[in-house]
C-alpha cells in the first residue's frame, strides 16, 4: 500500500459514485480451465463472517510525541492526494505515530516495504541525515516515478522492484527499521486504467504488479462457489452468494470487462444500508482485489521476512486499514512477544517455549487523531502496531497465520444470506 492508503469506503466511492489454460492463484484460491474452457475449483460456499469492527479508539491517555514537522506545510488545507510524481511531499497516514514508534536515530538502514509515492520514505530520509533507505514496491510505475527522489537523496535511497513478502532477500543486509503500509494506494485507485475503483469506469484489472491473472479473469472464469467464497471472506459481503450467482448469470450472456459493469451488477443485488454513503459494490471490489493480489498471504510473508531482517533493537511498524489485515498483525506480534500460547506440533496438548523475538512498542493498536481525520478522512480506519526486535533467535514460521490469511475450508458451516 502506498503512503496515505485509504479505507475501503473511501477507496471505492460512495452511493453517489457511478457505478489457454490460465491459472489464477494465491494462497486462498485457484482457478483452472479445461482445454474446452470450463472451470475447475474445489471450493464451496463459505460461512458467514463477523462484521468488521469499527474504527479503533486508542487507549485513553495514550499519545505519541509529535513527529518532526517534515510534512507540516503540505498538510494544511485539503488532504494531499497521491499522484505518480514524488516531487511534492505526500502525507502518509499516522505519520506522527509511526516515526516515534520507529525511534529513528543515528546511522542505519530503514526499509519502506511499500514505497508507493514515497511518503514514508521522505519522512525516513528527513528523520536523520545518516539514515539510508531501501524502498520496495511491486508496482513498476511506482519504481519509475520514484527516480527523482533517488536523485534528490544523494545516494541514501535505493528502490527495489519486488514484493515486500521477500523484503529480506531483496534488501540483502540487516536493517534497523521496517515500515509497512498495507493494501492498495490512492495512486492506483485514482487511475481508471488500473481497474481498482468504480469511481471512474475502466478495465477490470486490479493487479498491483500488472502481472498475472486480473480481476476480469477471476470474475469470468471462477465457478460460482469460488467467487462466493472470495467475496464473502475477503470482502465480508453477506450477500456474497447472490453476487456470485448474478455474476455467473451475466457472464453467460457476455464477459464482464469493466469496473462499471461489475459495480452495476452488484448494485442490482446488494441494497445500500439506510443512511450509509458506502456503494453496494465496495465489499465485492475489496474481496476480489485481495484475492487477485494475494494481499493477506503477502502480509504474512512480510512479517516473517521483517523478523529475519531486523537486527536486535530494530523496530517494525505496520499500518493496516481493515480487520482482516489487523487480525494477522495482532496475532503475529502476540505470538512473537509471548502473549499467545503455542502448542507443540509433536504434542498438541503440551505448551512449548517459544523465543520472544519481539517486544511491543505500542499498547494495542494506535488510531488517527481527530485532527488527522479532519484533515484526511481516509485515515479514519487506520491502525498502527509496532514492536522491537529482541536478540532471540528467529522462531519457526507461524503456519496458523497462513490459515488465517486463507479461505476457510469448504465444509466449515453454512454460508451467508442468499
UniProtKB/TrEMBL annotation:
Q: Which reaction does it catalyse?
A: cytidine(1402) in 16S rRNA + S-adenosyl-L-methionine = N(4)-methylcytidine(1402) in 16S rRNA + S-adenosyl-L-homocysteine + H(+)
Report residues binding S-adenosyl-L-methionine: 118-120, 137, 164, 181, 188
Which top class of enzyme applies to this chain? transferase
Biased composition annotated in UniProt, kind: Low complexity: 404-418
Q: Which InterPro entries match?
A: RsmH, SAM-dep_MeTrfase_MraW_recog, SAM-dependent_MTases_sf
What's a GO biological-process term for it? methylation
**Which family does the record claim for this protein?**
Belongs to the methyltransferase superfamily. RsmH family.
* Gene behind the chain: rsmH
Q: Which organism is it from?
A: Methylobacterium jeotgali
State any single GO MF term. methyltransferase activity
- Which superkingdom is the protein from? Bacteria
Key word Transferase present in the record? yes
Gene3D superfamilies to which the protein is assigned, alphabetical: Putative methyltransferase TM0872, insert domain (1.10.150.170), Vaccinia Virus protein VP39 (3.40.50.150)
Keyword list, A-Z: Cytoplasm, Methyltransferase, rRNA processing, S-adenosyl-L-methionine, Transferase
User: Does the record's keyword annotation contain Ribosomal protein?
Assistant: no
Assigned EC number: 2.1.1.199
Where is the region Disordered?
40-61, 343-418
Q: What does this protein do?
A: Specifically methylates the N4 position of cytidine in position 1402 (C1402) of 16S rRNA.
Chief place where the protein resides: cytoplasm
Q: What is this protein called?
A: Ribosomal RNA small subunit methyltransferase H
Subcellular location, in the record's words? Cytoplasm
